[in-house]
Structures are given as structure tokens and as C-alpha cells.
Amino acid sequence: MKQFVLKTLLFVLVALAIFQIKSLLMMRNERYVKKVLGAEVYFSIEKSKKHSKARKVLLGDSVGKQMFDGAQENDTVNSLTSNQAISMAGQYVLLDNYIKAGNTIDTAYVFFTPFSFVNNLDQIFTYNYFVKPFYRSEYMALMTPDVKKQVSKIPFTAIAHWPAVLTSNWSPEFETKDKPTFNLISPISAQYLHKMSALARQHHFRLVLVAAPVSLKKKKEVELLNRQEIIDNNLQQEFKGFFESIVWLDESYFKDGTHLKQPEKFKHRYKNIIR
């Protein structure tokens, strides 16, 4: 029995050592950023820190990434699209990075479905898509008290940047206990849209919200979104023309009700808006 326990303990220690060595190897040259869940987020972060000739920058959720993938070079519009899970706080960090990299722009587009503004850093994806890539010392000065409050509700955030955790897809089981009083614009989204507008005024560029294509099947859901929240958050200017820009498509064009089967077929619908 004693020999069995010793062998088991030895096996566990060796396994942990191998796992730790593997994690450290993945940390070298940040190899993990191309392999983990949310790889597109790390790609956009890296791209946001580079100089570009493009005078327009595009932020967006996963539908935005479908339509305007940042991996495709464009001299006119530089796409930093990723995923709604990074929240508007993450989108703001990307925009702030881009400006700090010395880029001069005349327009910043935010390409979102109407349902993406509700993210209040309270999702199951928040740990991998926001905490790991954005909630670190490099960006802490950009985090509002509300962001810190929301992150504090998520377990194990203190170990998010440990090599073994950071280089894996692991995240804690998390289900928010918040009872939101909003269904369109979360407090986090409102705060960071205002911060984007302030950045636009400071650096003399336009901030334009553009609606991603939406299934006709969800038209009633969009109608039920409380647009009074736009007024309550003093975001009338930011949302001007947003709902009018929605491209309504038959459900058959979507593979899951949200993402398009062939997004390239509808990109031309935005040529007079994003150019």
C-alpha cells in the first residue's frame, strides 16, 4: 500500500512538472496566443500596437470579424475586429492602443449586432476573453471602478496570468448573480462608449456605430430592446443612425441565427458606410 501511494505521488509530481515545463515553453515568445481560446483577441491586440497607413480603424464583434477579418490586409480600413466577449472595455483598449501607436485616423467604426452592447463583463467567456488578455498591469490605468467591481465577482482572477492558466483554455465555472435592469446597453458599454467619444474629440476623428446584419427572425427581439437606455445614458449622438443601418436578412443566410454562412456576399452592403 505504501509503495502504491509513493508511486502515485511520484506520478502526480512528474505530471505537474511536465505540465509546468510545457506552460513555460508556451510562454516563450508568447506562442500560446495563437493556440488558446480567444486567439483572435490576442491577434487584434498585437495589431493594435502597430503603425498603419489606414486612416480608418474598425472595431467589432465576431460578426464584424466575419465581415471584416483583421487578418486580411486593407490599406483603407484597418480591422481590429474580434469578439463581443471582450466587452466595450476591451474594444476601448484596442482603440487606445491604436492611437498610442502613433496612428492618425479620421474615423473609428464599431461594427456590432444590436445585442453585443449588453455585455457587462458578466459572461462565462469573460475570463478567457477579457481577464486573461486585458486585465493586466499594462492596461490597469484604463479600467474603471465598475470594471474592477465586475471582475472581482469572477473567481480565480488572481491566477489568470499564471503560466499554466494563461496558456490553457481553462476558466472557472462562473454564472453571474447580477440581476440587470438593462437589455440594450450595459453600464460598462455606456462608460466606454463615452470614453471612445472623448478620445475621438481629443484626436479629431469620428466615432461611428454600424449595425451588423441581423436575421429577420430576430426583428421582434430588436424591437423589444429598450432604446430609452440610449437617452438615459446620453448616447444619442453615438447611436445616431445605428438601428437604421441594420441589414435585415432571411434566417436561411445564417448558420446559427447570428453568424452568416457566406459573409462575403453581403460585405458590399456596407461600401457606402465603411469606406
Question: How is this structure best described in words?
Answer:
This protein has 275 residues and is an alpha/beta fold. It is 38% helix and 9% strand. It contains 10 helices and 6 strands, in the order ααβαβαβααααββααβ. The chain has a 4-stranded parallel beta sheet with strand order 2-1-3-4. Strands 5-6 form a two-stranded parallel ribbon. The longest helix has 26 residues, at 2-27.
What is the SS-derived class?
Answer: alpha/beta
- Tell me the overall shape: globular
Q: Major sheet: order of its strands? A: 2-1-3-4
Strand content: 5-15%
Radius of gyration (Å): 21 Å
Pattern of helices and strands: HHEHEHEHHHHEEHHE
| Spans where pLDDT lies below 50 across 5 or more residues | 4-8, 10-19
The main β sheet shows up as: 4 strands, parallel
Please give the share of residues in helix.
Answer: 25-40%
Number of strands: 6
Overall residue-averaged pLDDT value: 91
Q: Helix tally?
A: 10
Distance between the termini: 72 Å
Give a nutshell description of this structure.
With 275 residues, this protein is of the alpha/beta class. Helices cover 38% and strands 9% of the residues.
Structure characteristics:
275 residues, alpha/beta, four-stranded parallel β-sheet, two-stranded parallel sheet, 9% strand, globular
Secondary structure: elements and pairs:
Layout: H1 2-27, H2 39-48, E1 56-60, H3 62-67, E2 77-79, H4 87-100, E3 107-112, H5 126-134, H6 145-152, H7 163-166, H8 187-203, E4 206-211, E5 214-215, H9 219-223, H10 228-232, E6 248-249
Parallel strand pairs: 1-2, 1-3, 3-4, 5-6
